[in-house]
TrEMBL record:
GO MF terms held by the record: phosphate transmembrane transporter activity
Cell compartments where the protein resides: Membrane
Membrane keyword on record: yes
Organism: Halocynthiibacter halioticoli
Parts of the chain that traverse the membrane: 34-55, 61-80, 92-116, 139-159, 196-215, 235-253, 259-281, 302-321, 349-368, 388-405, 411-428, 463-488
Gene Ontology annotations of biological process type: phosphate ion transmembrane transport
Record's bilayer topology term: Multi-pass membrane protein
One GO CC term on file: membrane
Family classification: Belongs to the inorganic phosphate transporter (PiT) (TC 2.A.20) family.
One protein family per Pfam: PHO4
Protein name: Phosphate transporter
Superkingdom of this protein's organism: Bacteria
UniProt entry keywords in alphabetical sequence: Membrane, Phosphate transport, Transmembrane, Transmembrane helix, Transport
């Protein structure tokens, strides 16, 4: 009899403890999505506090302090969106885990920004606005601030909906919108804007075509050969040599601007020499790695995995060296204008601005990058190491060709265009093989046209979302920037 009340007490205690554990689980579940934004906010606040310590908190320097905070916000968004294009194919092909991709990208993006990042940047983002159109320094500062805020907000929104967009084009749109609001339509260099608009079409199509051509070459020379391993021993070192030469040319042109100015002829010569050396070095290594491998496609993935990882790392370095400077251009312009009381077509980027860019990219990548990495790597079309290798190689080649032609291109458009190119080529090639084998199949084994359409290898919903985001990036950023400029002008002007 005396044990019964005790038993009831223990049951009551168990119920109470169960309720408490459920509350703790619910709290953890609700708070988990807030961890990443919380860390990002802490980084932005810390950047603002460090800028306030570095600069005296005077009314003049308050603008620079605020711009530093928005610059950190912009850098976080670059890491969340732009970097996915370099690492997505490698992760989608299972050549890298998500964690390894994030670590490699963070290291190489930061190294590219800090070691080879441009020491001089165009304050007007590729010359789209004439500085002479601004009547006073104050108006110029608010225009650049509006461009910085609007481009960061747009990239943030695109990341939220899962669309990889161009950070550079977002900045271009922001600068254009603020320039029009501040100085009228005549302030915009419309021929330059026309070239940028042309690049929206040319760069992804060119990237897609080059990626498809490389995939066609790999299929013909390696995958569909009777002895796949022997074919791989012959051609994989050649492809590695091409990759090394292309990336050496790319980095010489884009990544070494801080050290020396290299023309395209010299860059191509550097690429040729390094490509030849890498071919000679890689041939025996590939032969050794191919020993004992079965004559099947799965074995080929092993041989392409390491070159794919290296190409992804080099793309991240080149992106950090080239694109980060463009993204922090408005911040560098604000700092220069606030310090010297004037504005110029080109200004030096202070080291602390590049540090904000490098750290912000790393934080953005770690906290928010996996969503876009998965989108680019596996949700548009299925990738393996061979297909992903073609995407990385086409990205570097397209940038070189575009630079030679003088086209302002987006690495985002090129990389995603390469993924589309690989996917659409696979669709075309699969349909071609089906037509060739259809006549040999009995009627009951033939695939119905409706079922073939359902088995498309490129997800049309993602394709349309991404294309729509690309088309509206510049006008959306421009409209947001113009509105923000007018608000800033009213509040502080």
């Amino acid at each position: 009899m005396s044990d019964k009340p005790k038993s009831n007490q223990w049951q009551t205690l168990d119920k109470d403890l169960n309720k408490i554990s459920q509350i703790e689980s619910a709290t953890a579940y609700i708070s988990r999505p807030l961890i990443a934004p919380g860390i990002a906010l802490a980084f932005i606040v810390l950047t603002v506090l460090m800028a306030a310590i570095f600069f005296d908190a005077t009314p003049t320097n308050f603008v620079v302090i605020a711009a530093a905070g928005f610059g950190a916000y912009m850098a976080i968004n670059i890491g969340a969106n732009d970097v996915a294009n370099n690492m997505g194919p490698a992760v989608g092909a299972n050549a890298l885990t998500m964690g390894a991709a994030i670590v490699i990208a963070a290291l190489f993006e930061s190294a590219g920004a800090l070691i080879a990042g441009g020491d001089v940047v165009s304050t007007i983002s590729k010359g789209i606005v004439d500085p002479a159109g601004f009547t006073e320094t104050r108006v110029f500062i608010w225009a650049m601030m509006a461009a910085l805020i609007s481009s960061a907000l747009w990239v943030n929104l695109a990341t939220f909906v899962g669309a990889p967009v161009s950070t550079t084009h977002s900045v271009v749109g922001g600068v254009m919108g603020a320039g029009i609001a501040a100085a009228g339509l005549t302030a915009v260099n419309w021929p330059t804007m026309g070239a940028i608009a042309a690049s929206w079409v040319i760069s992804p199509v060119l990237g897609g075509v080059i990626a498809a051509l490389f995939l066609a070459f790999i299929k013909a020379k390696i995958i569909y050969q009777d002895d796949k391993i022997a074919a791989a021993k012959k051609w994989v070192p050649v492809l590695i040599g091409i990759m090394a030469g292309v990336f050496a040319t790319y980095l010489a042109m884009k990544g070494l601007k801080r050290i020396m100015k290299i023309d395209i002829g010299t860059a191509l010569l550097i690429g040729l020499v390094i490509g030849a050396v890498c071919y000679v070095v890689s041939a025996p290594l590939i032969n050794k790695k191919a020993e004992g491998l079965e004559n099947r496609n799965k074995s080929l993935k092993i041989l392409f995995a390491a070159p794919l990882v290296i190409s992804a790392a080099l793309l991240s370095f080149a992106h950090g060296a080239n694109d980060v400077a463009n993204a922090v251009g408005p911040l560098a312009a604000i700092v220069h204008a606030a310090e010297f009381g004037d504005f110029a077509a080109k200004v030096s980027i202070p080291s602390w601005v590049m540090v904000i860019g490098a750290l912000g990219i790393s934080f953005g990548l770690v906290l928010f990058g996996p969503k876009l990495i998965r989108m680019v790597g596996s949700q548009i079309t299925k990738l393996n190491p061979m297909r992903a290798y073609c995407v990385s190689l086409s990205a570097a080649i397209t940038v070189i060709v575009a630079s030679w032609l003088g086209l302002p291109v987006s690495s985002t458009h090129i990389a995603v265009g390469g993924v589309f190119g690989v996917g659409f080529y696979r669709e075309w090639h699969t349909e071609k093989r089906l037509k060739q084998s259809r006549a040999k199949r009995p009627p009951e084994l033939r695939i119905a046209p409706e079922e073939r359409r359902r088995r498309k290898l490129v997800r049309r919903s993602h394709f349309m979302t991404i294309i729509a985001a690309w088309v509206v990036t510049v006008p959306a950023a421009a409209i947001m920037s113009a509105v923000i400029f007018m608000i800033l002008n009213l509040l502080v002007g």
